[in-house]
Design a protein that fits this description.
seven-stranded mixed barrel, two-stranded antiparallel sheet, 46% helix, alpha+beta, 17 strands, 12 helices, single chain
């Protein structure tokens, strides 16, 4: 009989039931879209922030002095310290190896470059001090050696392809990047204009030894680089060529690492040396940028791993603000749905005063009446929640495609949360009307008072 009463009452007054279900559906649709995007926004923002480049930098531990101002590290480099390339495969052996998406070593040298008049497409690279001509006849240039599409042999026998193109995806190259097995290079656009070189031009790299200046490898320009930074005035070489110029085979000066991380909180910024064992374990098992830096330092002896705060902090702040906005929208939609349900429930209780009075006169307890009305509202909440979830998926798909280019995936967890929220909103909005209905005195009602 209880279920027959619920089914009978649910089909009566369809207009009021429809309005209540519509209010719930709209509120749950907004909540579904906000929750779906909120759950997906972390991964999407991480993908977007990969375009900002590396968020970790590794340098020799004896190579710098601590100097940090406003979260930006200004530590100077000392040209006497280097790190071995042979240790780099160990980076992919740390706990968070899957979060490390790319890394690229850097070896730099300052040289003088000269373009002889008879052949403006030829440039000679002479190590500083390696020419008998006056220094003002040459242009001082920074040469950067690095990897591009480099295959790193890992301990499990697999290969990991990485390089500067992955750690600095915002660098724009007209033409193409150099191939590591060939004598090719990329010039910054400002340097190329100054030296009157374009794609296809060639120049000869020279290095100085005790017996004089000896010819090196002939190098072809295959691309022009534009970054909007100091690299526009530099030349980018395969690292082996710079190692030959410096006579430092298998060594590098700096390493940039790109890693997928979660925003740091107060716990993430604590010094791991002051943590208890259980706290250190929890910190190490969270993909904070600081914990990944700590893991890398453990496998690279003699290294100093620092966080590029401008990238890491920017990601955390934007993600926090986006999620806060989504939660505010969700809360507002739930409050609006609760008010709509409350108004509809109050009107329904007033219309059904006679029915409620008759049930109580026939012996129905206040709890029974309240539970019957609550069950009707919960059935409405289930219908409104399911419809709202379906509408919310469409809205989330639209928002995800417009904002991130990729729609969020449907989630069973979100469906369960939405049904629980629909029930909670319905009971919260109907609480006062149901309480009033449970306290009705049947005698005055049946007398028509």
């Amino acid at each position: 009989m209880f279920f027959r009463l619920i089914a009978d009452n649910f089909t009566r007054r369809p207009r009021r039931k429809f309005l209540t279900a519509a209010a719930l559906s709209l509120g749950m649709a907004v909540a579904t879209a906000a929750l779906s995007v909120s759950l997906d926004v972390g991964d999407r923002l991480s993908e977007e922030f990969k375009s900002l480049g590396a968020n970790l930098v590794v340098t020799p531990e004896a190579d710098s002095l601590p100097l940090e101002i406003g979260g930006v590290d200004f530590r100077p480099a000392n040209s006497g310290a280097y790190l071995p390339e042979s240790d780099l495969p160990k980076i992919k052996s740390v706990f968070w190896h899957n979060n490390i998406t790319a890394f690229a070593p850097i070896l730099d040298i300052s040289v003088f470059m000269d373009v002889p008049a008879p052949r403006p497409d030829i440039a000679r690279v002479v190590a500083q001090g390696g020419s008998t001509r006056q220094p003002d006849q040459f242009a001082k240039v920074q040469i950067l050696g690095t990897w591009n599409r480099h295959q790193v042999e890992l301990s499990d026998g697999s290969k990991f392809v990485t390089g500067i193109e992955e750690t600095s995806p915002w660098w724009h190259v007209q033409g193409r990047w150099f191939l590591e097995g060939k004598n090719e290079c990329v010039l910054g656009k400002n340097l190329a204009e100054r030296l009157r070189l374009g794609i296809g031009g060639r120049f000869n790299a020279l290095r100085r030894e005790e017996n004089g200046v000896l010819p090196g490898d002939n190098c072809e320009v295959v691309g022009l680089l534009e970054t909007g930074a100091s690299e526009d005035d530099a030349a980018i070489f395969p690292i082996r060529m710079v190692q030959q110029l410096l006579n430092k085979p298998g060594q590098y000066r700096k390493l940039y690492v790109s890693a997928l991380t979660k925003p740091e909180d107060d716990f993430a910024r604590r010094d791991p040396k002051t943590m208890k064992p259980d706290e250190l374990e929890r910190w190490s098992c969270s993909p904070y940028v600081s914990s990944i830096a700590y893991s890398i330092k453990q496998v690279l002896p003699g290294s100093d791993v620092r966080v590029i705060r401008r990238v890491a902090d920017g990601e955390g702040k934007i993600l926090t603000r986006v999620r806060t906005l989504l939660w505010l929208v969700t809360i507002a939609s739930l409050l609006a749905a609760a008010l709509a349900v409350g108004a509809s429930s109050a009107s329904s209780v007033i219309e059904r005063r006679t029915e409620i009075g008759l049930m109580k006169a026939l012996g129905a307890a206040s709890g029974t009446v309240g539970w019957l009305l609550a069950a009707e509202q919960l059935l409405l909440a289930f219908v409104g929640g399911c419809v709202g979830y379906a509408l919310g998926l469409l809205l989330a798909r639209f928002l995800g495609t417009k904002i991130f280019g990729v729609p969020p995936e449907p989630s069973l967890l979100v469906l369960c949360v939405i049904l629980v929220l629909a029930a909670a909103v319905t009971l919260l909005g109907s609480a006062l009307p149901l309480r009033r209905a449970a306290r009705f005195d049947p005698a005055p009602i049946l007398r028509g008072e």
